[in-house]
Design goal:
The structure is a single chain. With about 425 residues, this protein is mainly α. It has a two-stranded parallel sheet with strand order 1-2. α2 packs across α3, α5 crosses α9 and α11 packs antiparallel against α12. The longest helix has about 30 residues. The protein starts with a helix and ends in a 10-residue tail after the last helix.
């Protein structure tokens, strides 16, 4: 394997294993910054050793061992420093540094990731800080990726994460899944975290790949685990249903050359019927528990409309538009309104959809959201307003950070170029 191939393998392994590694380390060392430092040290060790020794058969175990060794060295040094300071101070009552048992990393400890999600969603943190911190720790997302998911600035996200870590450390928040009423109080933030992780995998905000299946798989795993923990919570089941149905399309969302394949152009024979069945089953259970109008259950119902349509032409767009209208009432959001505009355009025609999109033009949260000009360009093109459509697609291409999506937007812009008028005979 070439050095470049090895580095790509390390990047892939790191994307998948870093959240698990950090979660396991936090359980033992009880310090988020230290856990991240040890995980980064393990990554550096991999970058030093794997290009010559090769990628190990069990890269996750290798990274854990490297982090453990570095942790033992670092913590022993800290213990020695603490003892020397205590001796110099001459204070026999000073609190001795307790060496964490890093060998406990090998224990069968259950789901560290789920524990870490609930820890990061502690009520001492604001809702925004909860989601940002958990996405950083468990989703393996950069601050830039999180900022785009939040439609906010990167410095803002960075500040939220720093403050969240400091708050958890100051309050000595335990690394555990809460019980009783406290569990329910943190649930909304936890669901939001899991779905944002899934969305980053379903449509990558940046990079060369249109999708990141490993993130979708991790979010699904967490969602299924949470559904097992809270089997009578409708919105947990609603989120599970939504992710199962959307994940069923993953194989159809990308062409063989990596290019995006949009929903209406997908080969529905490639949709995973097992995942669709699991999603519809979870949605039905949520409905029976009285949760049909929860935000995630409503989105799952929209996804189910697509899943039940044998062809794109058979899609029940009036039903989807009605569901989006309900969702806009239950969980108001400019992104929901944009999606509703698309559904209205499909149900009533592009002019009706464009009127709704234009009403969103001055919405601050959508100022740099690439899908706003992308949707507007599509509707303008359908109305024959090709020059305006081209300008919108070019703006969408400038705003997106995803290379594959940029190619699609530029191609759509080029397709809008008005062909020259034939010379008279």
């Amino acid at each position: 394997m070439s050095r470049a191939d090895t580095h790509r393998a390390i990047e892939a392994v790191w994307r998948l294993e870093a959240p698990k590694l950090v979660a396991a380390l936090i359980r033992v060392v009880r310090d988020i910054d230290l856990a991240e430092e040890l995980a980064q040290d393990a990554l550096v060790a991999a970058l030093e050793h794997w290009p010559t020794a090769g990628v190990p058969d069990n890269p996750a175990a290798w990274l854990m061992t490297a982090a453990k060794r570095r942790g033992i060295d670092l913590l022993r040094h800290r213990q020695l420093v603490e003892r020397k300071h205590a001796a110099l101070d001459g204070d026999p009552e000073s609190e001795a540094f307790t060496m964490p048992n890093l060998e406990a990393l090998d224990d069968d400890i259950g789901d560290d990731l789920l524990r870490l999600i609930f820890t990061a969603c502690h009520p001492a943190l604001s809702a925004d800080a909860q989601v940002a911190l958990t996405l950083r720790l468990l989703g393996g997302l950069t601050t830039g990726e999180i900022a785009r998911a939040f439609l906010t600035s990167e410095p803002t996200i960075a500040q939220r994460i720093v403050r969240a870590k400091r708050t958890l450390a100051d309050k000595r928040v335990p690394f555990e899944v809460p019980r009783g009423e406290e569990l329910g109080a943190r649930l909304a933030a936890v669901l939001g975290v899991i779905y944002l992780i899934f969305n980053e995998g379903y449509t990558a905000t940046a990079g060369d790949d249109w999708i990141r299946p490993s993130l979708c798989e991790e979010a699904l795993r967490l969602g299924r685990t949470l559904a097992g923990l809270m089997p009578r919570e409708p919105e947990v089941l609603g989120l599970q249903a939504l992710m199962e149905i959307q994940a069923s399309r993953l194989h159809a969302r990308v062409a063989s050359d990596g290019r995006p394949v949009l929903l209406l152009e997908q080969n529905r024979a490639l949709w995973d019927q097992l995942l669709i069945h699991r999603g519809l089953d979870a949605l039905e259970r949520a409905r029976k528990l009285g949760g049909a109008e929860g935000p995630y259950a409503l989105q799952a119902a929209i996804a189910a409309c697509h899943a039940r349509a044998a062809t794109a032409e058979a899609t029940d767009w009036p039903r989807i538009a009605a569901l989006y209208a309900t969702l806009a009432r239950v969980a108001p959001s400019p992104v929901v309104e944009l999606n509703r505009a698309v559904a209205v355009a499909m149900a009533e025609g592009p002019a009706a959809g464009l009127a709704l999109v234009d009403a969103l033009g001055d919405t601050p949260a959508l100022a740099n959201y690439h899908l706003l000009p992308a949707v507007r360009g599509d509707l303008l093109a359908k109305l024959g307003r090709r020059d305006e459509a081209r300008a919108e697609f070019e703006r969408a291409a400038q705003l997106t950070r995803n290379a594959q999506e940029r190619k699609v937007m530029l191609e759509r812009a080029q397709a809008c170029v008005t062909p020259p008028t034939p010379a008279p005979l």
